[in-house]
Design brief:
The chain has 403 residues and is an all-alpha fold. The chain has one domain. The chain contains twelve helices and two strands. Strands 1-2 form a two-stranded antiparallel sheet. Helix 4 packs antiparallel against helix 5, helix 4 packs parallel to helix 6 and helix 4 crosses helix 11. The radius of gyration is 22 Å and the shape is globular.
């Protein structure tokens, strides 16, 4: 076969996905199922008379999520370019439905779920994470130099993301709204936005976050619980202190799998956003570092995929999925270790939550689809710089070369 000249355009060819990344996700998924069972069987028995109540639901969600992963992995991710407006419309529709009486399902004072027949309540904001990610990746990849314009780039971006975030804040769910803003803000930066615009958006976001915290008493309480949980150990600081106690009780090697004491109704949400605290108690510092190391390995392999993607859309898709998993992990672990306010954000693959599990695994499937068309090594010929993505070591590819 004749060798290509440097002037020839590198054309992506379908090949095997990144099985290394898939293996890391599989290990995290198995650990998550074990952790959910260990942390929830006491609550399941006390509340529903069935110690397997939560793990059965989580296993079903994991199975559906794996089906979504396999389906997304085997579909050319570039088809999402045409589906992105429909996904965005469906996301907005779902978020509106979560606010409608008779359709929404309220739990703990928040209307974040919708009832769909006999199925467990679904959480539209989890679908919105993927839908907004896909839509903004497609939109940003197509903007080119017009992204630098205030009227053609910045304002439309703020309007689209602001609409979704506002609907989620009304539920109320400030944590998820901040997460979506962080994911899309990362894409905005990577797509080549001017630094002054990025800084301005970041500053306005901080101001808006401060205002939203100040006008809601329970959000202010979370800040107080972060700053000084010892001042109200049986009230505002109870959850924070119990999570820290669970982590500290584990020591270096842990008490042993299934031997946690804090899961017996001391740690609120032990099987959801507090699952890492229970893992720390049972598996110790070593176990926690292994779990965090697996997340680090996942992000590293994902970054390789983003750098070698066939086009800017693929790079932004991959970067968005990584930002989703990375930010969510940091927010969850930061809350447990008293470094960030507790927000109720679940730990990917490990926390209980059907909608979150299904959508996170489906997002990984999209990432694996990008890997199927990514360069196995560095691209063998220079790529056009139009639509470049800011990823370390990336050789920018034009959106036209992906067809």
């Amino acid at each position: 076969m004749a060798r290509r000249t440097p002037e020839q355009v590198w054309e992506p060819r379908r090949h095997a996905p990144d099985y290394g990344l898939f293996a890391v996700v599989a290990v995290l998924l198995v650990l998550g199922l074990i952790a959910v069972y260990s942390s929830s069987y006491a609550l399941g028995y006390a509340r529903y008379g069935d110690p397997n109540f939560f793990i059965k639901r989580q296993a079903v969600a994991a199975l559906i999520g794996l089906m979504g992963l396999v389906a997304a992995m085997n579909v050319d991710y570039r088809r999402l370019l045409h589906l992105s407006p429909l996904l965005m419309f469906a996301a907005v529709l779902g978020l509106v439905a979560a606010l409608l009486p008779g359709v929404s399902v309220e739990q703990n004072g928040a209307a974040r779920w919708v009832a769909v027949g006999p199925l467990p309540p679904l959480q539209p904001s989890e679908f919105a994470k993927l839908a907004v990610l896909v839509y903004m990746a497609a939109w940003l990849a197509a903007k080119g130099e017009s992204l630098h314009s205030m009227t053609l780039g910045v304002l439309p971006f703020v309007t689209m993301v602001g609409l979704v975030a506002a609907l989620i804040v009304v539920e109320p769910d400030l944590g998820t709204a901040v997460l979506i803003a962080a994911i899309t803000g990362t894409l905005f930066f990577l797509a080549g936005a001017r630094m002054v615009h990025v800084i301005a958006l970041l500053g306005s976001g901080v101001v808006m976050f401060t205002v939203l915290v100040a006008v809601a008493g329970y959000r202010t309480d979370r800040i107080l619980a972060l700053i000084s949980p010892e001042s109200d150990p049986s009230g505002l600081g109870f959850q924070t202190l119990q999570m820290l106690l669970a982590l500290g009780s584990g020591g270096i090697s842990g008490l042993g799998l299934g031997v946690s004491r804090q899961k017996f109704f001391y740690v609120p949400g032990a099987h959801t956003d507090g699952v890492m605290a229970i893992l720390g108690e049972e598996l110790g510092f070593i176990g926690v570092m292994v779990v965090l190391g697996l997340f680090g390995l996942l992000l590293w392999r994902g970054l390789r995929i983003a750098r070698r993607a066939a086009d800017p859309f693929g790079s932004l898709l991959a970067a968005g999925v990584l930002a989703w998993i990375g930010f969510q992990t940091v927010i969850n672990v930061g809350g447990i270790t008293q470094r960030l306010p507790l927000t109720g954000i679940p730990l990917p693959f490990l926390s209980y939550g059907g909608s979150a599990m299904v959508m996170t695994l489906t997002a990984v499937g999209v990432l694996l689809s990008v890997s199927r068309y990514a360069a196995l090594g560095e691209p063998r010929s220079p790529q056009p710089t139009s639509g470049a993505v800011r990823l370390p070591g990336t050789r920018a590819a034009s959106s036209g070369s992906s067809r």
